[in-house]
């Protein structure tokens, strides 16, 4: 593990069950090179889409997907920023509705209470993107200060920006503040 030259703080990367999750290690590499201490959390289904061993080697930390038990120590330092990518229909809707039945969504709901900068990048089927609940959830998250990167006019296979663009969007959000 290389130590970044300039420390930016703690970045949570929340990963859901979508094909792009298989490449999230590329985001981790970019974020670490930019000075972030990265911690990866997956949804329970998202855990099957990532290479946890590779992510643990890159971050020096466990990939978490479940709540800890009372006898386990707290393992995550407070977040300075969060990227949720890829974010699924299910996670977006539960997060916006405050339904914390997974560790990942519970963590997102808690972090919002600390005014931590968050970038969310939904990746879902076109038919789900047209669902009324999804549109409401995106609007609610935006009202709560989340930077949502989602273009419904883009073709489904081109809706998710590159990992580099996502990280740059987070850096812009931190520098400029919410829009």
TrEMBL record:
GO-annotated molecular function: catalytic activity
One Pfam family recorded for the sequence: Flavoprotein
Annotated InterPro entries: Flavin_trans-like (IPR036551), Flavoprotein (IPR003382)
SUPFAM superfamilies associated with the record: Homo-oligomeric flavin-containing Cys decarboxylases, HFCD (SSF52507)
Species name: Sphaerimonospora thailandensis
The protein, known as: Flavoprotein
Domain Flavoprotein as annotated: residue spans: 12-106
Lineage: Bacteria, Bacillati, Actinomycetota, Actinomycetes, Streptosporangiales
């Amino acid at each position: 593990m290389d130590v970044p030259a300039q420390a930016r703080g703690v970045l949570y990367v929340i990963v859901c069950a979508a094909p792009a999750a298989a490449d999230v290690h590329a985001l981790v590499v970019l974020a670490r090179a930019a000075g972030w201490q990265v911690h990866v959390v997956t949804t329970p289904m998202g855990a099957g889409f990532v290479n946890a061993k590779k992510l643990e080697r890159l971050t020096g930390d466990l990939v978490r997907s479940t709540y800890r038990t009372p006898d386990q120590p707290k393992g995550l330092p407070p977040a300075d920023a969060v990227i949720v990518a890829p974010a699924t229909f299910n996670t977006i809707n539960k997060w916006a509705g405050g339904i914390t039945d997974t560790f990942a969504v519970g963590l997102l709901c808690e972090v919002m209470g600390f005014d931590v900068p968050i970038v969310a990048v939904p990746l879902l089927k076109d038919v789900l993107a047209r669902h009324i609940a999804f549109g409401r959830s995106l609007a609610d998250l935006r009202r709560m200060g989340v930077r949502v990167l989602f273009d419904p006019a883009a073709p489904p296979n081109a809706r998710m920006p590159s990992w580099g663009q996502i990280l740059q969007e987070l850096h812009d959000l931190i520098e400029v503040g919410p829009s």
